[in-house]
Design brief:
three-stranded antiparallel beta sheet; elongated; 5 strands; 239 residues
Length: 239
């Protein structure tokens, strides 16, 4: 029977990684941890320790974790691909691509796509609605799921656009909306088709929508779907 807590061509290395991770989970009291070592020939070793956040449900190497702000790299890659294709200009105002977008601050007209990516837009920072929510749903993130027009219209800038950089999550949600507006597709669908799929990153998801066959690790937890058993990114028995 396959061990879903270790995998790779070097079982000995996977065992050592798992032992180290188990110590980290005990010491830091985290829900779960997972690590992998890859080489030119593919996966050498992967292992995990801890639980998914569900009672008596052990974490597995194919489980998903919320990558938090690492997702900004994906948004930036998506925008830069469109820049490379000549479909987006970094120094054009955001409103060129989102003409109906506005804030409760007339200076929002000065915000460029580049300012979203380098945190200098002056947008305050973060709408924490649905922040790191563990629940799963069927809605595909579209950029309007968290930050609605009603939300944006209450926002006032904390600084003149371009005057200085201050860490801003909402700017990247807005950049994802630019991707949607230019491509005519939901952000995550276009990202999978154009970037993560060709790169072999089939488990990437956004918001509440998971890649099919995966379970997400949660600190709070909820019962995992019955019958889900990830095998190389797919449900057991499915092609």
């Amino acid at each position: 029977m396959r061990d879903y807590r270790c995998s790779g061509s070097s079982p000995a290395l996977a065992g050592r990684i798992q032992e180290k991770l188990e110590g980290i989970v005990r010491e830091k009291k985290t829900a779960a941890a997972c690590a992998a070592v890859c080489g030119p020939g593919g996966l050498l070793a992967a292992a995990c320790a801890g639980t998914r956040g569900f009672e008596d449900s052990l974490a597995r190497v194919d489980d998903l974790y919320n990558v938090g702000s690492v997702s900004k790299i994906y948004v930036t890659a998506a925008v830069m691909k469109l820049v490379q294709e000549g479909r987006v200009s970094l120094d054009e105002p955001v409103r060129r691509y989102l003409p109906r977008w506005k804030l409760a601050d007339a200076r929002c007209r000065e915000i460029t796509v580049r300012m979203l990516l380098n945190h200098s837009s002056g947008i305050p920072g973060t709408n924490l609605h649905d922040h790191l929510a563990p629940e799963e749903g069927e809605e595909l993130f579209t950029g309007r799921y968290r930050n609605t027009p009603a939300y944006w219209q209450t926002v006032k800038l904390r600084a003149r656009p371009g005057s200085f950089s201050g860490y801003c999550n909402d700017g990247f949600d807005l950049a994802a909306e630019v991707v949607e507006a230019v491509t005519g597709e939901p952000y995550i669908r276009w990202l999978r088709e154009q970037i993560t799929g060709p790169a072999g990153l089939f488990s990437v998801g956004v918001g509440r929508r998971l890649a099919e066959g995966y379970v997400k690790v949660s600190c709070r937890g909820a019962e995992p779907e019955k019958g889900r058993l990830p095998v190389n990114g797919r449900e057991k028995g499915k092609a």
